[in-house]
Design goal:
By secondary structure, the protein is α+β, with helices and mostly antiparallel strands. The chain is built from two helices and five strands; from the N terminus they run E-E-H-E-H-E-E. The chain is globular, with a radius of gyration of 12 Å. 30% of the residues are buried.
Length: 105
Amino acid sequence: MNVTWTLPDGSTKTAKVAEGTNLMEAAVANNIPNVVGECGGCLSCATCHIIVDPDWAAKVGDVGDFEDAMLDATEAERGDSSRLSCQITMSLDLDGIKLIVPVPE
């Protein structure tokens, strides 16, 4: 299954991601800039903030209450389809998903 990240400079990077892998782990493993995951995916740092391409936003599920609060603490401005990538798990339904790495302020 593939994930494509649009990087802050406008370039893209596509990588194969195994089912069950959270997208923060996938970003870190593929050296995606500005996706750090300092807390290791335990929803306590907001350093894995990404924006889900609007065409894919409905497929990733809803933002939970705690994730919603954490998204208010991200370095980059929050967008309509902002998510913490540690909260999105790769599945067959997400094969081909497109993510945008926001520019930190």
